[in-house]
Amino acid sequence: MWTGSYCQTAVRIFWSFDNTLQDLYNNFNGVGSNGPTYNSPGYNGAGACLWLNQTLRQSVSITSPFLNITNASFTFEVWLYPNTLYNGNPYTDNDILGQCQQKAQDQCLHIIIRSQNAYFAFYSDDLKGNQVFSAQQWYHVAYIYDYSIQTQFVYVNGYLDNSHNSSGPYQGISGALTIGTTSIQVPNNFFDGCLDSIAYVSRAKNASEVLNDATLVAYLSFDSSTLLDSGPLLINGTGTNYSYTSSGRVNAGVKLSGNSSYIQITGLTRIGTNSWPYTVAVWINPTKITGGTIMHLSSRIDGAQPNAWCLPIMGLTSIGQIAINSWNNTNVPITGPIVQLNSWIHVAATYSSSNGERLYVNGSQYGSSSSAYSFAAGGVPMTVTLGSSLLGVGACNTGTIQMNQYNGLLDEFRVYARELTAAEISALANP
């Protein structure tokens, strides 16, 4: 049996790798081997990620406590950026995480990439995914075991990649937890690249939860007088000249007024990727309707400078219509109804290369979508500014949006790295 200091059945573990190997809950803290380093930014564009060099055989180990996942359900999720991928030999792996008592059936957990596919195995109970991974791209991968139905699942970027029933359960009762290597195919198994935000929970997450983890970029509820992100990436907001109000649409909200009153979130990696689908949604309650930037997207936190990418993606026209701006200059911006003063309105905009842009007001699609097109994004983690275009005024394509200060209340701001369905938008608009 396990000979370490003690065994623990953890409920939750989270390694942020923001220049630390510590578990957020200070239980499963790691120790580096052969000098692993950090690369900034990580996936969320604000912190760091764990950078591992396979030629140096770098890894992390957690020798105590022993993580007890025997005869149990569990979920491991990770953001990964493979710098290189072994792909010429099925027995040369790119390892993410493992725990091994011995190389015997169901006693050696290995969560890896093998031959450019996700691979989830207990030893002799193996699941191979279908998604072919490419080097130098970010992926969200979830490895899930449901003990109640003895089934393994692998999800890539929020969607089911493959499953395998009549599996396991895992029965290892000893062995260190390792990150970046496992006990399988040593030494041809070290990960090369960045690992970020590895999370564990002691249950099998469902498909909706995984999709949310992989695609909810940021969620600022504005409750409890904070700009804390309630999404999985913990991209907290910053701001200036704003105030909180108890009269939000859902609990508390924020008030913007006067000049240079705004809130920002930075590090939006997916939104800076060419043609990546997205959804932005927010409740607004304007105290002035003759123009105003509701959301401004830019490659710099100042809104625009020479050689910067910038666009006000949602705002008000000079006569008070809701408008969303086009990423593509050949498309006409979509305008909605004229808003009412001192009244809550839910506004959402979606984009995908197949559907173009769509505007939703109070949960219903307003007008027709733009034509299908692919946009050229900023190519770097982006910044969303709520309430102002900052230095983007006069420097960015405005469309029909009148780029000046938004005055009024905001609540429940969300960004997704996917196109939400009409039913999902309606649910946000009817909390």
Automatic annotation (TrEMBL):
UniProt xrefs under Gene3D superfamilies: 2.60.120.200
Report the transmembrane regions from the record.
none
What is an example of a Pfam family matching this protein? Laminin_G_3
Task: Extract the InterPro entries matched here.
Answer: ConA-like_dom_sf, LamG-like
Please state every residue range assigned to the domain named LamG-like jellyroll fold.
279-423
Q: Which residues form a coiled coil?
A: none
What top-level branch of life does the organism fall under? Eukaryota
Keyword annotations of the record: Disulfide bond, Signal
Name of this chain's protein: LamG-like jellyroll fold domain-containing protein
Q: From what organism does this protein derive?
A: Rotaria magnacalcarata
